[in-house]
Specification:
CATH architecture: 3-Layer(aba) Sandwich
Bound molecules: S-adenosylmethionine
Keywords: Methyltransferase, S-adenosyl-L-methionine, Transferase
Structural class: alpha/beta
InterPro entries: Cation-dep_OMT (IPR050362), SAM-dependent_MTases_sf (IPR029063), SAM_O-MeTrfase (IPR002935)
Distance between the termini: 37 Å
Number of domains: 1
Pfam families: Methyltransf_3
Strand order of the largest sheet: 3-2-1-4-5-7-6
Strand content: 15-25%
Order of helices and strands: HHHEHEHEHEHEHEE
Number of helices: 8
Radius of gyration: 17 Å
CATH class: Alpha Beta
Protein name: O-methyltransferase
Number of strands: 7
């Protein structure tokens, strides 16, 4: 199969299973109009995250890497009325676009966006006692994946789900000699996960409109 067929099938899946959604469409449109990179999760992946949060009965969610807030909105919509989502973003322009998107989605009271480098914000989240989180979605710079995972564990409880995006990188993850910083960051994460007894973990390869990549799924024991 080619990237083209993956994309066509992904679109078929989205058309069949994911109803048109004016708010999500407007979120993507505003993000593109503002010049943000189109590196958000696909609709099928967004709904996958949403369903995962509902299956887990998540009331508190932490996201690392907001961009324009597309995955954030999918996740926040899984929360009950008293639920909360904290999302971390380093880029001021991305944060500004995301905040407008959250307001349009009617989720600005539910979503707490913190602007700054995530590794500097995470200690503040701990100090503010905002955890433990029921679900953590890690989707920022891949070089710091291990640092984000360690913080996710610190801010977790037994039963917390941790999801990490982009852990296959078109198959480049198997290349031990890669000099690509993102690939190396992902490989360090696998090493960390394989040695970590406090989580039960797998990874799933994904194909679709975003090409060939994958998610790590970890359950805190
Ligand atoms: N989760 C988003 C979605 O699917 O809609 C996509 C997130 S995008 C792949 C990664 C985001 O992480 C970018 O907006 C980038 O600015 C942000 N980022 C990169 N390095 C960061 C850091 N050190 N701290 C916080 N955010 C960071």
């Amino acid at each position: 199969m080619t990237n083209h067929s993956w994309a066509v099938v992904d679109e078929y899946i989205a058309n069949a299973l994911i109803p048109a959604d004016a708010v999500l469409d407007a979120t993507l449109k505003a993000s593109v109009a503002a010049g943000l990179p189109e590196i958000q999760v696909s609709p099928a992946q967004g709904k996958f995250l949403h369903l995962l949060a509902r299956i887990a009965g998540a009331k508190s969610i932490l996201e690392v890497g907001t961009l324009g807030g597309y995955s954030t909105i999918w996740l926040a919509r899984a929360l009950p009325a008293n639920g909360r989502l904290v999302t971390l973003e380093a880029d001021a322009k991305h944060a500004e676009v995301a905040r407008a998107n959250f307001a349009r989605a009617g989720l600005d009271k539910v979503i707490d966006l913190r602007l700054g480098l995530a590794l500097e914000t995470l200690p503040k989240i701990e100090a503010e006692k905002l955890g433990p989180f029921d679900l953590v979605f890690i989707d920022a710079d891949k070089t710091n994946n291990v640092g984000y995972f360690d913080w996710a564990l610190k801010l977790a409880r037994r039963g917390t789900i941790i999801v990490v995006d982009n852990v296959v990188r078109q198959g480049a993850v198997v290349d031990a000699t890669s000099t690509d910083a993102a690939v190396r960051g992902v490989r360090r994460l696998y090493e960390r996960l394989s040695a970590e007894k406090r989580v039960s973990t797998t990874a799933l390869q994904t194909v679709g409109i975003k090409g060939y990549d994958g998610f790590v799924l970890a359950l805190v024991e």
